[in-house]
Design goal:
Elements (H helix, E strand, L loop, with lengths): L1 H10 L11 E7 L2 E8 L2 E7 L19 H15 L14 H17 L4 H9 L1 H4 L7 H24 L4 H5 L8
Antiparallel strand pairs: 1-2, 2-3
C-alpha cells in the first residue's frame, strides 16, 4: 500500500517557488495571489490559489474559449516554468539599427501628433541627460527633426518601401499581382 502511494505521489507535480526560473515577484490583488516571473526570453504571469503552499500538489486550470489555440504556447511555457525549465530563448532577436530608427521615428510622430514639443520628444526618446545639452541648432534637435521628417514620409506612402511593395504597383489599383 505504501508503494502505491509513493508511486501516485511521484506522478503529481508539487509546487516549488524556487524551482521556477527567473526573477520572481508575488503580488496580492483583488483576485488572489499572482506570480510574475521575468526571464530573458519572456514574462510569465500566473494566478495562484490562495491556499497553495510550497511542496503542495497542484493542478493547472486553463480557461476554455475561442482563443485557446492561440494561447497554448503561453500555457505550455507556464507549465514548463512551474517544472523548473526556462523558456526557450530563440524568440529574441537582436535589434537592428534600421529597426530602432523606424521605431524612434514613429514614436516621435506620435509625440508630435499629441502636441509634444521637439524637446519633449527628445527627452522621451533619448533621456533627460541627453536633453541637458539641448541647443536651438544642436545635433539632438536635428536628430528629432530628421525622425519627424522620416515618419511623415512613412505616413505619405513611404511605409510601402518598408513592406517591400513597389510604389508603381501600389498606385495601380486592380493590377496587383496575385500571390
Amino acid at each position: 500500500m505504501r508503494a502505491s502511494r509513493a508511486h501516485g505521489a511521484s506522478t503529481r507535480p508539487t509546487f516549488d517557488l524556487w524551482r521556477v526560473p527567473g526573477r520572481k515577484r508575488l503580488a496580492l490583488g483583488g483576485s488572489g495571489l499572482t506570480l510574475l516571473t521575468e526571464v530573458p526570453a519572456q514574462r510569465l504571469r500566473m494566478s495562484l490559489a490562495d491556499d497553495l503552499c510550497d511542496g503542495a500538489v497542484y493542478i493547472c486550470a486553463v480557461p476554455l474559449g475561442p482563443g485557446l489555440r492561440g494561447q497554448l504556447d503561453v500555457f505550455n511555457a507556464q507549465a514548463r516554468a512551474l517544472q523548473g525549465h526556462a523558456p526557450a530563448d530563440d524568440s529574441t532577436r537582436t535589434v537592428t539599427r534600421a529597426a530602432l530608427l523606424h521605431l524612434r521615428a514613429l514614436q516621435a510622430l506620435d509625440g508630435a501628433q499629441a502636441g509634444a514639443s521637439q524637446r519633449d520628444i527628445a527627452q522621451a526618446l533619448f533621456g533627460l541627460e541627453a536633453v541637458m545639452r539641448w541647443h536651438a541648432d544642436g545635433e539632438l534637435r536635428a536628430a528629432v527633426r530628421h525622425l519627424l521628417r522620416r515618419a511623415k514620409t512613412y505616413m505619405s506612402g513611404g511605409y510601402l518601401s518598408l513592406a517591400g511593395i513597389q510604389r508603381s504597383a501600389a498606385d495601380a489599383s486592380g493590377d496587383e499581382p496575385m500571390r
